[in-house]
Design a protein that fits this description.
168 residues, mainly alpha
């Protein structure tokens, strides 16, 4: 069973060389009932995305529509590193997940928003403003949790968004 990052170094190496060759294996790991295996799958995606971000993002767009919430969560979680460096390019994946009903997925999307806040709080705030008008309970949960770090740098903007959710 693959439960440590060291267990997947060959998958990562192969994935950097040719991402398409390992996506099926990583997806299988992402669907595993054991959370440690799922974390290793997400970590593999993070590591591959450091060298092949466009290919990983393209695949995560597909995974974001999967019926399995564990795979949808990996679609978000696997983009943590990209979110920290280049948050605007992961927005299409987050757009697909913004109304997800599964708490596991919502937590991941909110976490990715918090990660993106480090690089670009304005992108996160603008995204959350746009999402707030949806009046979707799942999206509102993601917004509230995802804006936690943005409160520090942009307290008045965050307060406006959170106030708008109360009126939804």
């Amino acid at each position: 069973m693959l439960t440590k990052v060291s267990d997947i170094k060959n998958i990562v190496k192969d994935g950097i060389a040719s991402p398409k060759d390992v996506f099926a294996k990583i997806k299988q790991l992402a669907a595993d009932p054991d959370w440690k295996v799922r974390e290793v799958a997400a970590t593999a995606l993070v590591e591959i995305s450091k060298k092949r971000q466009n290919e990983v993002i393209s695949e995560m767009l597909q995974w974001a529509a999967d019926k399995d919430p564990n795979i949808r969560r990996s679609a978000s979680e696997g983009l943590r590193d990209v979110a920290r460096k280049n948050p605007e390019i992961i927005l299409p994946v987050l757009e697909k997940l913004k109304t997800d009903e599964d708490l596991y997925v919502k937590k991941s999307v909110a976490n990715v928003l918090r990660n993106a806040t480090r690089k670009s709080p304005i992108i996160v705030i603008d995204t959350c403003k746009k999402w707030a008008v949806l009046k979707n309970a799942n999206t509102n949960w993601i917004i509230k949790d995802g804006l936690k770090k943005a409160k520090q740098s942009n307290p008045s903007e965050v307060a406006k968004i959170l106030d708008s959710l109360l009126n939804n």
